[in-house]
Amino acid sequence: MSVSLPERAGSIVLTGIPAVAGVVAAPVVRPVERVRIETASENIAKSDRAPEAERLRVAAATVAQRLRHRATRADGAAAEVLSANAAMAVDRGWLGVAEGSIATGTPAPAATTAAIEQFAAMFTRLGGRMAERVTDLYDIRDRVVAELTGAPEPGITLPDRPSILLATDLAPADTAGLDPNLIVGLATSLGGPTSHTAIIARQLGIPCLVAVTGLDEVPVGAQVLLDATTGRVTVHPDPDADATAAADHRAAAARAAAWSGPGATADGHRVDILANVQDGASARAARRTPAAGIGLFRTELCFLDRESEPSIEEQAATYREVLDAYPDAKVVIRTLDAGSDKPLRFAPHPDEANPALGVRGIRTALLDDGLLDRQLDAIALAAADRDTAPWVMAPMISTAAEAESFAAKARARALTPGIMIEVPAAALLAETLLAHVDFASIGTNDLAQYTMAADRMSPHLATLTDPWQPAVLHLVARTAAAGHALAKPIGVCGEAAADPLLACILTGLGITSLSAAAPALSPVGATLATIPLETCRRAAQSVLATSNPAEARAAARTALGMDSSQPAEIE
Ligand code: PEP
Ligand code: MG
Q1: CB count in 10 Å sphere of residue 268
Q2: Helix, strand, coil tally for the chain in percent (to 5)
Q3: Centre of ligand 1 from the C-alpha of residue 478, in Å
Q4: Is the pTM of this model over 0.85?
Q5: Domains of the chain with bracketed CATH
Q6: Is 299 in the pocket of ligand 1 (CB under 6 A)?
Q7: Ligand 2 midpoint to CA 301 (Å)
Q8: Which UniProt keywords apply (predicted)?
Q9: Which pLDDT tens digit goes with each residue over 188-231?
């Protein structure tokens, strides 16, 4: 955990994990406290129970309807979250439990609270992405109970002037409704860099810090400087530093808006800047940005709600939509990364105490490789009339034998095989594994999780899963060197690639492509375009010599000539 240090007389610096880069200064606002509604639990008369259950169903449907309506006015990740929450509001699981307690005499608000509590406990036990949805569940509870009791719908009241929103955590439905002109920065004391809040903030372009220690003490109205590039919130900042930092950020934002690719350093060393997508719609949206292709198509996200395996033709139609968005460019399709926090109901998942270390990604093929074979058939079918073979890569590769077997299956279908490097074992033996395939892409989200033995979704361990951890960057360096030795491209497609400062370091380490959510790409490309390759290389070496993420960031800023006068915080 970071230790907060008073930085200058009168100012306090709090540290957190940068989720969406940017620097802004503004006064603090906080979400309106959610009214805790007393849910009286006296028994209701038998004759009132059926109408009470109906009242609950109507309230849940009303909440779902409002969320769906907001989804139609949003797009991308915000729309997806709002639609998913709308579906959760009328989910038969919790509603069934609540109706069961109403049938025994519990009033609807108390029945709602108890049912949601039961599901929240179950999601927390499951961990990972399921645990993240607990915030959504509580948000639905508050909305339904407010509807039942006639209280105002909970949420964030937008301020009348540009402000920085500080919160313990935010419901994704609240984040999705933020106006970036009024909420110019966001910081939470919980949440990780891959939380829904961070994903939506990235899409809205709101600079965002998560896992900030000491945030709860900052009073409403206090002026703060939120630096989501270095990971600091300065309370009562020096007014000059305040203005300079914000002006620097505005200049950087203008540079990013003007950047149109292709990705290259200031001296013309090419680095492909690519988009991460999960379906045809996001691929078409990426096409409207400077993304030169797709660096990661997360195919499992297309089928999370499926009970049974989609047919080869159905899969092919889904993949073709993404290929069609980039007919002549590089498209890297990842085979199903089922398991752990992304279980697919039609993939083999044994009951496991520790699913992140269990049967996920390529390991599902150990139990049944028919699923992988059929997916590769579908990709080949989707690509049948393309001039260039799509690249396919397997997630969670940890041995040379897995790489070899995957490559044989891909080549048999005229696909270009690659592997993801997400497990330290794969990075350590990168040269051996790469001998079997044509490329690799480093998934820094999982590589950090497995290197640091820290759940990537844990809000308490966000410092450990920070991709700036030098141990993680040493494994990136090792993999890039292996790629260089064998003349094979090595990309990065984890959240690390969305950080403009880290993008320069990755380039200096020898990474040949960077793939991230499309809205993050312009700041990355624009920053890289200002730095010569040799400077990136020197900066990368100085980062590798550090011992913690804060030092690593500071070393990078100094070596890249982006130094702010601020000292590094203590880890
Ligand atoms: C990663 O692990 O960095 C990655 C890109 O894969 P995912 O986030 O889908 O696990
Ligand atoms: Mg991964």
Answers
A1: 9
A2: 50, 15, 35
A3: 19
A4: no
A5: 12-31+156-253 (3.50.30.10), 48-149 (1.10.274.10), 259-560 (3.20.20.60)
A6: no
A7: 12
A8: Cytoplasm, Kinase, Magnesium, Metal-binding, Phosphotransferase system, Pyruvate, Sugar transport, Transferase, Transport
A9: 988 766 666 777 787 788 899 988 989 989 999 999 999 887 78
